[in-house]
Amino acid sequence: MEREGFVIKCVGGFYTVETKEGLVTCRARGRFRKEKVSPCAGDLVRISVELDGTGALTEILPRKNHLIRPPIANLEQLFVVASVVEPAVNTALIDKAVAVAELRGIRPVVVFTKADLGDPAPLLEVYRLTGIDCCAVSAITGRGAETVRALAAGFVSAFVGNSGVGKSTLLNLAFPGFRLETGEISQKLGRGRHTTRQVEFFRLEDGGYVADTPGFSTFDMERYQLTDKGQLVHGFREMDAFAGDCRFASCSHTCEKGCAVLRAVKEGKIARSRFESYAAMYQEIKGVKQWEQKN
Predict the structure, then answer these.
(1) CA-CA distance, 262 to 90, in Å (whole number)?
(2) With contact defined as beta carbons under 8 Å apart, do 145 and 137 qualify?
(3) Is 285 within 8 Å of 100 (Cβ atoms)?
């Protein structure tokens, strides 16, 4: 019997697929290994179901988008989570994750946790200037929980961020029924331990799904396929809005005379921290050899 469904979890070669008839645990057919394609959470798939209720994943339907890390497909929103303190905020990581979302047609949302321990106002000002939805939350006071819940309703979303920023705590706050495992910050290392070990989607009462994902502490741009310096500006929407007014079509938006982006930074229309993230990413991509980009 054939069915179509949505992959909500992948663990150890087993895929949990949500169908209209209920959940089915599947193994993937060997053809995926030969074709070097791996099913992942978020995939829309076709499966065959045996009389005993076991299933086999037979086909991955066309994807809207796909992230390599975390391995996830068909996202509509990406919540990029960072903490105000403990661990200290890293705007470069935020901006890389936001750029990945923008370049793949995924709507980014920036969330700052632990707002009771520090002032999120300067950070919120930076991202509000971009036009990206952003908010601050506190697990102690409950601040921001309703905003996150409203932004997630009706969409397929994932929450990503540095280890220890409180993604699972945030999801428990906004969606109390999830009851996800949470961890403590290491005082010695200044970062959290991984409590989420795989991507898993949860259905929302108001429609849509959200996924918790494993935390990360570094961001390898090649793994995220950020290797085209000419396209990078499209991952920074506020800079992209000015880029067309530059004097030269080949402008890198880092140092050229007559650059409309640099002028906007000087006039305060673009946050300097965002420009610095862009410039650092541009130089990182520029340093990758062409044969490495193809690989």
Answers:
(1) 23
(2) yes
(3) no
A 10 A CB-CB count for 165 gives: 29
Is 194's pLDDT higher than 50?
no
DSSP run (H or E) holding 291: helix 290-294
State residue 77's pLDDT score. 97
Cis upstream peptide for 70 (omega within 30°) = yes
pLDDT beyond 60 at 272: yes
Dist CA 205 CA 154 (whole Å): 9
Cα atoms in the 13 Å half-sphere on the side-chain side of 218:
4
Which pair of tokens denotes residue 189? 């290392």
Whether the pLDDT of residue 34 is over 90: the answer is: no
- The values of phi and psi at residue 231, to 5°, are -95, -15
What's the whole-model pTM score?
0.88
